[in-house]
Design brief:
The protein is mainly beta. It has one helix and twelve strands. It has a five-stranded antiparallel beta sheet, with no helix packed on it. A five-stranded antiparallel beta sheet has the order 7-8-9-10-11, with no helix packed on it. A two-stranded antiparallel ribbon has the order 1-2.
Length: 180
């Protein structure tokens, strides 16, 4: 208890000396407003602290992103972001990781995982100004099959195949694709 009182008195004395030594500056605030001093006390003193005054700089804010907002990698695909295409289909939420992205001469397609729900995906595609969104495609290796009624979109690093009632409507070779 006595040590705490002595330490407090020493800190007050150092602050008073510090404040009084700054009085040579003619542009200082008037004495009636009084100085505002913020003190961060840590033991033992950290390297780089001002040991003469006992006043420490405030700790720097953490710049490490939390796990829920951690940056996703940007796939090495032309026009890609960590969540889809610039000006094209993107994941619905920043917490939804991109698991597939690719484009053909006509189409841009992505598949995103629903949050942290392993095995739950959604497909988004864009071609000729039209967009499609299909929930819960299935995955087999690097191939995703999104079925909407009688239409299926089968996307892989090699191609996008669109079928209707089992009949192939289009086969579009992938120009670039990435699977996460």
């Amino acid at each position: 208890m006595i040590a705490a009182i002595v330490a407090l008195a020493a800190v007050v004395a150092v602050i008073v000396l510090f404040v009084n030594s700054g009085g040579d500056d003619e542009a200082a605030a008037p004495e009636s407003s009084g100085p505002v001093v913020t003190e961060y006390v840590q033991a033992p003193p950290s390297p780089g602290s001002d040991t003469d005054t006992g006043v420490k700089q405030p700790p720097a804010p953490s710049t490490t992103p939390s796990s829920s907002t951690a940056q996703q990698p940007i796939p090495p695909i032309d026009g890609a972001t960590s969540h889809g295409f610039v000006g094209g289909p993107t994941c619905d939420d920043t917490a939804d990781p991109l698991v597939f992205i690719g484009y053909t001469q006509r189409s841009e397609v992505i598949v995103c995982q629903v949050g942290r729900q392993t095995g739950r995906y959604y497909y988004k595609g864009k071609a000729d100004g039209n967009s499609s969104h299909v929930d819960f495609p299935t995955r087999s290796g690097n191939t995703f099959t999104a079925t909407n009624g009688s239409t299926s979109y089968i996307v892989s690093p090699q191609s996008l195949v669109i079928t209707e009632n089992g009949r192939v409507l289009a086969t579009e070779p992938m120009l670039e694709a990435w699977v996460g």
